[in-house]
Amino acid sequence: MGTPGASQGGVEEREVKLAVPDGWQLPSLTQLDGMTATDRGDERLQAVYWDTDDLGLARAGVGLRHRNGTWGFKGTSRREGDALVREEVEVVAGIDKIPPVIRERLATLVEIPALHPVAELDTMRHTIDVRDARSQVELVHDRVTVIDGNRVVARFAEAEVEFAVTAQQLADRLVQMLVDGGAVVDTIPKYVRALRALGHDAPGVVM
Question: To pair with 16 at 20 to 30 A between CA atoms, which of 46, 62, 159, 170?
Answer without folding.
Answer: 46
